[in-house]
Write a structure and sequence with these properties.
By secondary structure, this protein is of the alpha/beta class. It is built from eight helices and 16 strands.
Length: 343
Amino acid sequence: MNMIELNGAHGEGGGQILRTALTLSMLTGIPFRINRIRAKRAKPGLLRQHLTAVSAAAAVCGANVDGAALGSTALTFTPGAIRGGDYRFAIGSAGSTTLVLQTILPALWFADAASTVHVSGGTHNPAAPPVDFLQQSWLPLMRRMRVQTELECLRHGFFPAGGGEVCAKVAPVSGKLQPLTLESRGEWRATRAVAIVAGVPGEVAKRELEQVESLLGPMDTELRSLPAREGPGNVVMVSLAYEHVCETFVAFGERSLAAETVAQKVAGEARRYREGGAAVGEHLADQLALPLALAGGGRFTTNRVSDHLRTNLDVIGQFLPVRGDISEITPGVWAVDVQPLAV
């Protein structure tokens, strides 16, 4: 097949261009070459997290790879056949385990056998979706599309120390993915807040939960205190469960940041979503485009269209015969349609 040439500085110019290309190259068998990897980031080129994603993709499909080195700004990837099996990958930093998983999971959905994947590194990283987000918000929607994947956090790993581990168990999809239409969130079901501390006083989490409740109203709360060896780390998560979707919002504690400030940040994001009319928030929208393209189509509404989403749709369109149309249907609500190209 002809090799696809990608510009890593296109659009938002981050690591998602590479990860999406890896996923779709595995699935389509189309090789690609990417230059200027992560050109718009403060530290361009492959970091440990991105290098692990490349190594994981290569292991899953027996690919030939050129340029897979720390700091590399150019890479060539020629895929082979996708193979199920037992895999273990170590990032060696607090780089995101979830982003590595999201690179290879769609390929393993179509493998020749079931798979178990362990990835060690960061499980709760401010620059990526935490494990809880995938468990609560992303995987339930994937299951509606006939995906059979379970995800477990075996050990938490916070930035900057890392040291966490996640395990995914994947069964091949039976038949084709089911297209997903998600235009409304449906009726409200429950609101829940969880504050996690590891190597941080429990009083910090208590203040965060109290502040979240004062801003959003009564809800179920959980203070989760982890062994100090899994820290230091602090994260607050608010989940809003509706009939058709569960959205999860996240804020991370920092040494110089008051507990109340962390709580205000996550509560503000949750409130803006709750008061809007879209089905999904910005980050979940980013993660739905590729599965919908693999299913041959779908539609969802979102309260914000990020450069990340637009760039992802552009990369998808270079590998698959689909197009993504974005239109504002009411003030502050956009519809994203992923449809096959007309023949």
